[in-house]
Structures are given as structure tokens and as C-alpha cells.
From TrEMBL:
Keyword Amino-acid biosynthesis: no
DNA-binding positions: 65-163
Lineage, top ranks: Bacteria, Bacillati, Actinomycetota, Actinomycetes, Kitasatosporales
Keywords carried by this UniProt record: DNA-binding
UniProt keyword annotation of Iron present: no
Protein name per UniProt: OmpR/PhoB-type domain-containing protein
Domain OmpR/PhoB-type residues, every copy: 65-163
InterPro entries cross-referenced by the UniProt entry: OmpR/PhoB-type_DNA-bd, Sig_transdc_resp-reg_C-effctor, WH-like_DNA-bd_sf
Organism: Streptomyces nigrescens
Length: 171
């Protein structure tokens, strides 16, 4: 009769975990769930993780891109923040990314495939129902915060930001 004891997992001395999370609290919660004592590398998004894994140097922290502005809405994609009249909005990183992608579009309309690639980081697996769901939540949050910049749907094609209508000047 042989007794088999389970050996502890072999860990490579250079092992670490890469975690995509919004906050350090998220990482600590994940560490508790995994019962892990691995070093953790916290990244903001999959693009940052890919750059680090590919060995690309981190962006120069001194030269941040200028915030994107639409009316009184300021979007800071590098900080994953959006502000309305200088007041931070309670948005997820994905919602901020969606706003930023729409604000960056020179032609106005961003197609659904472009949104999937640029916001969700995938070329497939995300259909328009996922996008519409995310947009519905984002619209609700913007409306609750009093933001007058909207998100307009271009049926069958994509989305665009809808800046507030200009009031006619009284002459």
C-alpha cells in the first residue's frame, strides 16, 4: 500500500503575477482569493501589460498627453479619469476608455469593430449587445452627473459623441 502525498507546486524564483486592476484594493482582494505570496505587477489595462511583456519601455511620466475635451467634459485617458466642470466622474476604466475613444475620433463616428478593438482589446468575441450595454450604463452615469455631452448611435455602424446643442445667440 503506497501513500501518495501531494508535493507543493514548484515555483520558479523569477515568477510573478501580472494583474489588470483598477485599484490596489482589487489586487489585495485577488491575492487573498489566490492565497498567493507571488510578487504582483499591477497594470492599468491589457495594452500596458502587453507593452511590459514585450519589453517596451514605460512611457515617459513627465510627458503626459493632453486631456481630451468636449464642452466641459475633460477626459484623461492616461489617468483613466473623466471630469465634468473639474469634478471627477465615477466611471470604470472601460467607460473612461470608451469616452476617450469617442472623443479622439476626428471624423466623428467610431465603428463597432473599432470600438471592440480599441476599448475591449479584442478583434472578436465582443458583439454589439455588449457595447450597447456598456453605453447604456455610461449614458445613465453621465446623465446622473448632469453631463450635457451625449453618446449618439449611428444605426448599424457605430457611435459618436454628441456635444451639447449650441443655443442661438440673441441679436
Amino acid at each position: 500500500m503506497s501513500t501518495h502525498t501531494q508535493e507543493p507546486p514548484v515555483r520558479h524564483p523569477d515568477a510573478y503575477a501580472v494583474v489588470v486592476a483598477d485599484t490596489v484594493d482589487d489586487v489585495e482582494h485577488l491575492n487573498e482569493l489566490l492565497h498567493s505570496n507571488l510578487p504582483v505587477l499591477l497594470v492599468r489595462d491589457l495594452d500596458q501589460a502587453r507593452r511590459l511583456m514585450d519589453g517596451d519601455p514605460p512611457a515617459d511620466p513627465v510627458r503626459r498627453p493632453a486631456p481630451l475635451r468636449v464642452s466641459h467634459l475633460e477626459i484623461r485617458p492616461d489617468e483613466q479619469r473623466a471630469l465634468w466642470h473639474g469634478v471627477p466622474l465615477e466611471l470604470t476604466a472601460q467607460e473612461t476608455g470608451l469616452l476617450a475613444r469617442l472623443a479622439r475620433e476626428d471624423t466623428g463616428v467610431v465603428s463597432f469593430p473599432q470600438l471592440v478593438r480599441d476599448v475591449w482589446g479584442a478583434s472578436c468575441g465582443v458583439d454589439t449587445t455588449v457595447i450597447h450595454s456598456a453605453v447604456r450604463r455610461l449614458r445613465r452615469k453621465l446623465e446622473q452627473a448632469g453631463v450635457d455631452v451625449g453618446i449618439a448611435s449611428v444605426r448599424g455602424y457605430g457611435l459618436r459623441l454628441a456635444p451639447p446643442a449650441r443655443k442661438p445667440s440673441a441679436n
